[in-house]
Amino acid sequence: MKRRFTSMRASLAVVGHLLRKEFLQIFRNRGMLPIIFIMPFIQLVILSNAATFDVPQVRFHLQDFDRSALSDRLVKRFTSTGYFKMTGESFRQKSGIDALVAGKSEMVLVIPEDFEQEMMTGGHARIQLLIDAEDGFTAGVIRGYANEIVASFNRDLPELLPQLAGTQSVLPVIDIRSRGWYNPELIYTDYMVPGVLVVLVTLIGLFLSGMNVVREKEIGTIDQINVTPIRRWQFITGKLVPFWIIGLSELTVGLVIARLGFHVPMLGSYGVIYLVAAIYLLVVLGMGLLISTVTESQQQAMFIAWFFMVIFTLLSGLFTPIESMPHWAQNLTLFNPVRHFVDIMRRVMLKGAGIGDITTPLFMLAVQAIILLSFAVNRYRKVSV
Amino acid sequence: MKQAVVAEGLSKSFGAVEALKAASFSVSGAELFGLIGADGAGKTTLFRILATLLLPDSGKATLLDLDTVAGYRQIRTRIGYMPGRFSLYQDLSVEENLNFFATVFGATVEENYELIRDIYAQLEPFRKRRAGQLSGGMKQKLALSCALVHRPELLLLDEPTTGVDAVSRQEFWQMLRRLKSQGITILVSTPYMDEASLCDRVAFMQDGRILAIDTPQGITKLFTKPLFAVRASDKHRLIIELRSFEHTRSAYAFGSSVHYTDRRSDAAPEELAAWLRSRGFGDATVERIAPGIEDTFMALMENGAAQSRKEEAGDG
Question: Which Pfam families match (chain B) (predicted)?
Fold first, then answer.
């Protein structure tokens, strides 16, 4: 018993020496230090502020063929919201299209002749909105804004045209007022920061671990390591732990920036986030080590890591909602660790989800961690055939 | 333990390239054994198999009575291996490298300092310097220190003196002799033929084969044909002329003279001198000499090449 204990202590001591060596190397690498500790946070600040779906101002081109008091009212409705800014006016259909093509406006508002007349006599009239749908998402947002303005104009029509009150048979009786929960003011940074933070932690973890073992192969030090009595698990542990610690520190600094810099709410517990992050980093590092053991050069490892990073990010639900992906892609995202951690981060921070609410994604992450790590340990050989 | 290394019929191919062809040899305890051969002779492949880093296709090897395949784990704690390429951490300092390699073997620099003192003493002034910034000779000394720091019984040194200046090379061999005197068995490879005479025994390798194994003195006995040292003022023209002589077997520059071997076993120096004078070398001198180890290797290499050619012709 005592002998087993001392031999265990000896083998843990070897892991300790490996860790010491890794940290010495990491902190000595002047090129890498800023990449590890400064770049991610610059990215966090830039991306979180830039990656917003808000369309702050829509420039529109007006073609008012009616030029009546009512059409003027409608135009005022648009301009007075602050969302819409009139950038031109014309009376030839082609000029409106030209404004769209030239990128001078995102929308053309066409009010046909007899707009007021038809409204007075028939009780309904049409207007046309030409929206530049080159970017489908922005177009959707513009249509949403415009519809809302037209709808409110409709509601107020009886006041504007008292003579219409009697003739209008159906008046809108349901007044829809929506209110967003968990992020009532629809602040996009609240939504983006937790997600971007996950991507950055992933990026650092995957690349650092992915480049590491293959680097030792490239410069030949792996030969010297392989002839030592260092065991496989000791070597892999020595490689994992430093990046695991760095990953968790990055997350910590990121959370501080999120709370103090972006005022992202934190309704859940930090304990849950760190527990998930601890498991999540094992997935990422396992994957990085696997890439590192199956490649022969840092260049190869870099390309493979990028390949997965791009797929993981695009299929994570960070920028595009998973619900709007095709069915097969939605199924694919179940194997995407980034998706689960983004999901968990948002739920814990914005909705205050507890451990019981996130058991499914947490379970998926744990399974992935076990599979990837066992693969990585298995693929690393100290003898070549 | 009488034999520190026993290799029997080791073969290894990489795709279509046969890097090692049934190599067999043995090294006794506390022997300084040299593997001599040009680049691509298969020395590194042989070393990697012995160092338990590579599995042979066929054949087997035992180190310190342990099989390289079955007993690799015990072997690794008892040997020191220095790869041909500098394989220490360039971003760690001299001291950090040495400490690291001591500790992963469960040893400390202090307890084995005695063994490496001679070598490490020269590195001491640079102990804070990063390994990557050392000169070639210093790098080799550090690599040797790291391979020795856990007090191995057997040292495998793959081309330790390649790319090192002449003075450092000489120092390096002195260190090896001192280590040998402390009972450490050393297997060392080198592409420099002049280093062969510094070994107890040498094996000559070419194209994956071991062509001869003997002591440096013994190996020269393999050289049976008469050898002449020829001197004349225009050495370059002398070699060209000698190669056109009908009885010439080989003629190559060797220091200030040209070493000439004849096809006939009873050739006389006077005959050659007369012929040279008739070709306009008025000052030519010819003198019969005893073959050195390098002459033997040159002859072995030619024989080996001729044999390979014959085999290829036979295959076709």
Answer: ABC_tran
